[in-house]
Amino acid sequence: MGKRVLVVAAHPDDEVLGVAGTIAWHRRQNDAVVVLILGEGLSARFPIRQEALMRARSGFARLRREMALAHKRLGVTQTFHQEFPDNRFDSVDLLDLVKAIEAVKQRVKPSVVYTHHGGDLNVDHRLTFEAVLTACRPLPGETVERLLSFEVLSSTEWAVPQSRCTFLPNVFVDISPFLNQKLKAMACYRSELRRLPHPRSLGAIHHQARLWGAKVGLPAAEAFMLIRERIDRE
Question: DSSP class of residue 220?
Fold first, then answer.
């Protein structure tokens, strides 16, 4: 049996932008990959969230369909989707985010966890990172052996560069065989895609994978920051 992997993302499409190629790689290794999306991912496009909830039901349904199709293309084992307010995670208690993550984590018992970079521009990304750190705190009996953070184009690179919060990857996964699969998964998110030169475009995603690959001698790669790794005795 392979490993159990948990991906925790703030919004639908973050998981594809950040870790889709690696999800496909894990599935090739026969690892189980569970994705938890914390936010509903749409209401921030309206001035008032209540207005969004009343007027955008078709939009929410469409986004969920896009997410399901993207995850099917990647072979995701199981998906959980919460409905925390889009780009308003700072309006809810951090403990609520932690509890939502812990509930899924308790069911999955992952050995590997991927989540956002803690220095992203997007507030939901930053709070997701904090909540995952809390949910994965290294208590006795903790199953998580490896915790990594990923970048999300149009958020990670838009943050103010500071030494304490800049994305400085030190783990690179060869996604050369899975780059097209990643692009096809992102193409499922038609409501989230933009055109070049926007970073959340298929062209930019392709170029970024090639660039990370070139930095480490690979045709294409996804980059991660290793937050914590525990190596147990045999």
Answer: S
Q: What is the pLDDT of residues 92-126, one digit of tens each?
A: 999 999 999 999 999 999 999 999 999 999 999 99
What DSSP letter does each residue of 138-206 carry, written as one string? --TT----EEEEE--TTTTTTSPP-TTTS----EEEE-GGGHHHHHHHHHH-TTT---TTSSSSHHHHH
Cα 54–chain centre separation? 27
- Split at pLDDT 50, 70, 90, the class of 57 is low
- Could you read off the pLDDT of 62-76 as tens digits, one per residue? 899 999 999 999 999
Bridge partners, residue 4, by sequence: 32
- Distance between terminal CA atoms of the chain? 17
What per-residue confidence (pLDDT) applies to 53? 61
Provide the β-strand partners of residue 112: 5, 146
Q: List the structure tokens of 216.
A: 């480490």
CA distance 92 to 157: 26
CA-based Rg of the chain, rounded to a whole angstrom?
17
Tokens of 108: 């999955």
Q: Given strand 112-116, what is the order of strands in its sheet?
A: 78-84, 32-39, 4-9, 112-116, 146-150, 221-229, 171-174
**Burial of 184: CB neighbours in 10 Å, binned 0-12, 13-18, 19+:** middle
Query: What domains are there in the chain, each with its CATH number?
Result: 4-229 (3.40.50.10320)
